[in-house]
């Protein structure tokens, strides 16, 4: 989902970090393809079809100019023991970025399962198990934030506040709302007091929304510890589980359950997240 959001809105979002995600356009709007071809592969993927999908979307004006990607940082991560998403799938995302002119950094040296690796929190590093936060003695939040924003000041014990936000106010009229009622925003004291701060969007994975884990993803992935000293506001949008449309695990829409335009600027979830960022940035 972070991949789709970046490709569609690279004029507003200036970099991306992907953890075990497949390439833009992989699912082709089909759940069966998503669960098969976009989860496992026995060899390197041919990314030419995905390049064409992105370029066609650019020509149609449904995503931002792909030229933006050439100057933006991209960080792609795949755990060596990930049994959920195949290594060639994640590698294809990095390869696609490279084909589109970006210079991605690809990390595949950590022996983690399918999850968000942290220094000190979560399940055993090489397992794929809920809450999909893995204790790996590896600070993925710090690594990806440093790659996206440059050298950072040291992390500290988080002293800011986690604020609930009403996500319903950011839904476009006429579009189905597949977000939870409440999302979360971590705000350092300096930002709350009026200092200029950047916004980082932290998207949870499947089975990681509040409905599944309470606030574990918001509190335990390590982002907040880096936010205070570096004037970063961390936005944690939240999905909701549903059977209609079919999304029982609260995944973000990377296969089309919100509609055929799911990976474009008019896609419901992508536009709702952008609305959220822009709305929360207003004084």
Automatic annotation (TrEMBL):
UniProt keyword list: Hydrolase, Signal
Residues making up the signal peptide according to the UniProt record: none
GO MF terms held by the record: hydrolase activity
Cellular component per GO, a single term: extracellular region
Pfam family, one: Esterase_PHB
Keyword Signal: yes
UniProt-listed Gene3D superfamilies: alpha/beta hydrolase (3.40.50.1820)
Name of this chain's protein: Polyhydroxybutyrate depolymerase
Organism: Pseudoalteromonas piscicida
């Amino acid at each position: 989902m972070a991949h789709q959001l970046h490709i569609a809105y690279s004029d507003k979002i200036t970099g991306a970090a992907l953890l075990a995600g497949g390439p833009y356009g992989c699912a082709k709007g089909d759940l069966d393809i998503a669960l098969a071809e976009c989860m496992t592969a026995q060899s390197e993927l041919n990314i030419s079809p995905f390049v064409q999908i992105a370029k066609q979307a650019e020509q149609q004006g449904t995503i931002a100019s792909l030229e933006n990607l050439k100057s933006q940082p991209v960080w792609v991560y795949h755990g060596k023991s990930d049994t959920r998403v195949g290594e060639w799938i994640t590698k294809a995302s990095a390869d696609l970025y490279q084909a589109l002119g970006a210079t991605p950094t690809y990390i595949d040296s950590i022996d983690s399962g399918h999850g968000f690796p942290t220094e000190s929190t979560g399940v055993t590093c090489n397992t794929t198990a809920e809450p999909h936060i893995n204790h790996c003695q590896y600070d993925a939040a710090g690594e990806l934030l440093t790659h996206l924003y440059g050298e950072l000041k040291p992390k500290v014990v988080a002293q800011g506040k986690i604020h609930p936000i009403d996500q319903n106010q950011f839904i476009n009229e006429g579009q189905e709302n597949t977000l939870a009622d409440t999302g979360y925003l971590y705000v350092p004291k300096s930002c709350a007091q009026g200092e200029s701060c950047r916004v980082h969007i932290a998207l949870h994975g499947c089975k990681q929304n509040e409905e599944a884990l309470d606030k574990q993803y918001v509190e335990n992935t390590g982002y907040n510890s880096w936010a205070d000293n570096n004037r970063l506001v961390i936005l944690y949008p939240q999905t909701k589980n549903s059977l209609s449309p079919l999304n029982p695990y609260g995944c973000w829409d990377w296969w089309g359950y919100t509609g055929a335009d799911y990976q474009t600027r008019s896609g419901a979830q992508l536009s709702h997240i952008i609305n959220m960022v822009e709305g929360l940035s207003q004084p």
